[in-house]
Write a structure and sequence with these properties.
- This protein is of the alpha+beta class.
- It is built from eight helices and ten strands.
- The protein has a six-stranded mixed sheet with strand order 2-3-4-8-9-10, with helices on both faces. The chain has a two-stranded antiparallel ribbon with strand order 1-7.
- The chain is globular, with a radius of gyration of 20 Å.
Length: 252
């Protein structure tokens, strides 16, 4: 069970994380549409898809959209290597809300202004939204393969973006639908955070107060990969090595 948050702490978290990427999926429930208009949700979704595309491009993969100019379900991207050979399918998903609080008419979400003044609340771990989004990604892959069997052998990775309060991925088991090869997230400043954590409390406080960053790694952004240990198709080894993840030998 996630610890409770007071309204004052919620405001402080929101202030500190306002630049954090918040995502949206085109598959949103009616309660979220009531919370935000569909135009805003689609803008958030497009922004997160662009983040994933840019990260693949940074790793020198080519990215082609699959979900446009067709009425049939499709994963968002076809990922190819530098030689142009298809390597993976990728679907981008975002969980915007941990859950809805009917007694307060508010979502446990950074996007719901009404949550700010509701006082103390309890946020329970719920993996349903992750499972539902993975199932939707599999549905899109199956439709694509049914229409074009050439894609049947490609692994499917699902890139997730989470609202601050709905990030339950650390509790999700590393075994899932066999059609899912792995889950991606964007990891920000991993090396910097690790190095900062090794400093003494006094030096941490000094650096936070003065902004002195000499000797620390630069800001960074990269993929973190959680591989499905029961997947029918494995994530390509070359891509695996470009992510923060355990090796195949550790999970076999």
């Amino acid at each position: 069970m996630v610890s409770t948050k007071t309204s004052l702490l919620y405001k402080e978290i929101k202030r500190k994380t306002k630049t954090r990427s918040q995502g949206g999926t085109r598959l949103v429930n009616s309660a979220l549409i009531a919370m935000l208009n569909s135009k805003t949700l689609n803008q958030i979704a497009a922004a997160n898809e662009a983040v994933v595309e840019k990260q693949f491009n940074k790793l020198r993969y080519s990215v082609r959209r699959l979900d446009r100019k067709t009425k049939r379900p499709r994963p968002d991207f076809l990922i190819a290597n530098r030689a142009g050979r298809p390597e993976m399918l990728c679907e981008v998903k975002t969980v915007l809300s941990a859950r809805y609080l009917p007694d307060r008419d508010a979502h446990i979400s950074m996007l719901d202004e009404k949550l700010c003044d509701t006082g103390v609340f309890e946020n329970q771990i719920d993996l349903t939204r992750i499972s539902d989004n993975l199932a939707d990604a599999v549905r899109k892959r199956n439709a694509l393969v049914e229409d074009d069997p050439r894609f049947a052998k490609l692994p499917l990775v699902v890139a997730f973006f989470f609202d601050f309060f709905s990030d339950f991925l650390p509790f999700y088991p590393p075994t899932m639908d066999q059609e899912i090869s792995g889950i991606l997230t964007i990891e920000i400043d991993a090396a910097l955070t690790k190095a900062f954590g090794k400093l003494s409390v006094e030096e941490q406080e000094l650096r936070l107060r003065t902004g002195f960053a000499a000797g620390l790694p630069p800001n960074s952004k990269g993929f973190a990969l959680v591989r499905n240990k029961t997947a029918r198709r494995r994530v390509p080894q070359d891509f695996q090595l470009r992510c923060r993840n355990e090796s195949y030998g550790e999970s076999d």
